[in-house]
Each structure stands twice: as structure tokens, then as C-alpha cells.
Fold this sequence. Notes:
- By secondary structure, the protein is mainly beta.
- It has 3 helices and 12 strands; from the N terminus they run αβββββαβαββββββ.
- The protein starts with 7 loop residues before the first helix and ends with a strand.
Amino acid sequence: MTEPVFDSARFRQVLGHFPTGVCVVSAMVDDAPVGMAIGSFFSISLDPPLVGFCAGKTSSTWPKLHGAGRFCASILADDQEDVCRVFASKEPDKFSGIGWDHSPLGSPRLKGALAWIDCELDAVHEAGDHDIAVGAVHDLHVEHEGKPLVFFRGGYGV
Ligand SMILES: Cc1cc2nc3c(=O)[nH]c(=O)nc-3n(C[C@H](O)[C@H](O)[C@H](O)COP(=O)(O)O)c2cc1C
């Protein structure tokens, strides 16, 4: 591979022009809910149904999600910017003050989210400073037809 001819600031700036939705990927670990904000969530395959996300290797939540072997992705609505900020933080108890219940597979599912996707962790692939997590979808549902929270050029909304 040739050496890149740009710095990490340029990488962030250019990729920031690709707008993404935001979800919270969460799991239960020892009866406690854990989760993190994820903008890299993507649909992979219809048959079998697979989805994925990229998790940073420095995340303290990702090893817990990995160990749980399952996760639920809650797709955030446009009025859940505050929820996104909490789940993008390193607060020890991100779920205090957050409404949630259990998905069919027992993972945390956030109240007020547009939709949820309940998965078993199917595979993990290394990719640079991130891991690519692949989830086998067990069940999924749209909760309400609101507008999504969008992340674009380092901020919320377009
Ligand atoms: C809009 C948005 C999208 C994010 N997307 C990702 C992502 O796709 N993958 C990732 O590893 N971190 C992503 N993050 C950062 C993580 O949410 C954050 O680093 C993590 O929750 C830090 O806490 P932890 O150490 O408890 O995991 C995103 C943050 C924001 C605000």
C-alpha cells in the first residue's frame, strides 16, 4: 500500500461530509446495561439477515458488547441528541435517566428510538484501529415514523 498523502484531520473532514444516522448499540453484562453511540451502523445482507458496525479498539464498551455475544441497535430519533451525547461519553452509568426495556434476546432497547434491531454477534473482523462487528438479526421493529438523528460535518442535523 502507498503512504497516504493527507493527515487525520483531512480524513475526518472529508468523511464528515458523508451524513450518517446514529444508533445506540447495547447489551446486558452481569445484569447491567452497557452501550455506545454508533454512526457506522450498516445493513449487510438480506439472506441471511446481517447488519454491522465498526467499533473503535480504544472503546471501553466494545469489549463488553463483544463478550455479551449479542446486542440491540436502537436507531435514534431527531429529538434524542441528548441521549446520543450520553452514549458517546465515558460516563460510568450511561443508562441512569434513560428509559429502556429488554429486547426479545434480552438486550437493552431504548425508549423513544425510531426502531430497534435485535442481534446475535455473528463475527468480528479486524480493520485498522477498529473492529467490524457483524450481527445476525433475530428480530427488528419500527416503533414510530419520526425523523432520524443525523450526524453531518461534526454536528447534528443537516
Ligand atoms: C455521532 C457519533 C457517532 C459515533 N460512531 C461511532 C462508531 O461508529 N464507532 C465507534 O467506535 N465509536 C463511535 N462513536 C464514539 C463512541 O460513541 C464513544 O467513543 C464511546 O461511547 C466512548 O465510550 P466507551 O469508552 O464507554 O466506549 C460515535 C460518537 C458519536 C457522537
